Amino acid sequence: MASSHTRDTDLWFNDGNLVIQVAPRLFRVHRGVLAISSNFFSDMLAFPESETQEMYEGYFLPPPARTTFPVIEGVLRLAHKYDVPVLRRCALEHLSLVFPTDLSKFTQELYIETNLYVATVAHEVGATWLLPAVYHATLQFDATELDASHLWCGRRRRFTYEDLLACFSGCGALRTKVPFFIFTATNLGCGRQDCLIARLRSFTSRLTAQSARLPCRAAYRAWLNDTWRCFPSFFKLPSWDTLLYLERRDLQDRSEDPVTGHIGNEGMSEE
Q: In this structure, what are the phi and psi dihedrals at residue 158, rounded to the nearest 5 degrees?
């Protein structure tokens, strides 16, 4: 096998007995695992090996084992193409940590290229439940960034026309839920700029008092949760009932999987 190919450090197991090549990467996994988990590989591995095939001296660990987005992308595409539910579930579990359906579990802001990639792969593999978090993350970028193509992991990524429509529609709908008009409406009070500034100062100065801070925080949390409940309808997505059902289906308990392994306590990087 050509020396230009490299072992994947996360998915190369010394006791594996099958090497799979995906582009320049090599994965050393277990034949039995693939045969049990995928009808495609079960049928393929039943064929006798060719005497002339190339020989070369990964199984994918679920979270919280450390991995990277490029590895997840490769594994998820492979699992979807060849019908390997175990690998599909593990890859989606990793993505669910960064793109959750629970608003309280959002932990980090990501580069726009990462959001473009996850939107693309979510459509490809039918993981629509990832899209609310993807669209939520896009709110920090302006329209020109959303409509541009971006180079990420050697490939050009961009939103589809449908994704762009969903983002712009959702952004417009969200503006109706954000009560900025309280501070900027010109039909309240005199409407002059100095009155608007005074209104803002009055509001922020009162927030320094503990008696006002806690009720405001509780009201904001209630508003945030209500907005998140409406989020799928804003972005032309299925209802939360449907999305959560799809998530449960994709992330069902893996205790029945014929695979076990030691799991580290690390996160995921964008490398």
A: -160, 160
Nearest to 130 by CA among 114, 143, 142: 114
7 compared with 2, residue with greater pLDDT: 7
Nearest to 62 by CA among 119, 10, 114, 109: 10
Residue 139, Cβ density class (10 Å: 0-12 exposed, 13-18 middle, ≥19 buried): exposed
> Are the CB atoms for 62 and 92 separated by under 8 Å?
no
Distance CA 60, CA 93 (A): 11
Contact assessment for residue 78 and residue 41, using Cβ atoms and an 8 Å cutoff: no
* Residue the block writes with tokens 């839920």: 177
Render 48-82 in DSSP notation, one character per residue: PPPTTS-----PPPPTTS-EEHHHHHHHHHHHHHH
User: DSSP E strands: which ranges in 139-219?
Assistant: 150-152, 155-157
Q: Is the pLDDT of residue 59 over 60?
A: no
On the question of pLDDT at 87 being above 80, the answer is yes
CA distance 146 to 158: 8
> Cα separation of 133 and 152, whole Å?
19
Of 75, 96, 95, nearest to 87 by C-alpha is: 75
- Give the C-alpha separation, 65 to 103, whole Å: 23
Number of Cβ within 10 Å of residue 259's Cβ equals: 18
Angle, to 10 degrees, between the axis of helix 210-234 and the axis of helix 240-250? 80
The listed range with the strongest mean pLDDT (28-42, 143-157, 206-220) is 143-157
Q: Are 205 and 216 in contact (CB under 8 A)?
A: no
**Cα-flanking dihedrals φ and ψ of residue 72, to 5°?**
-60, -45
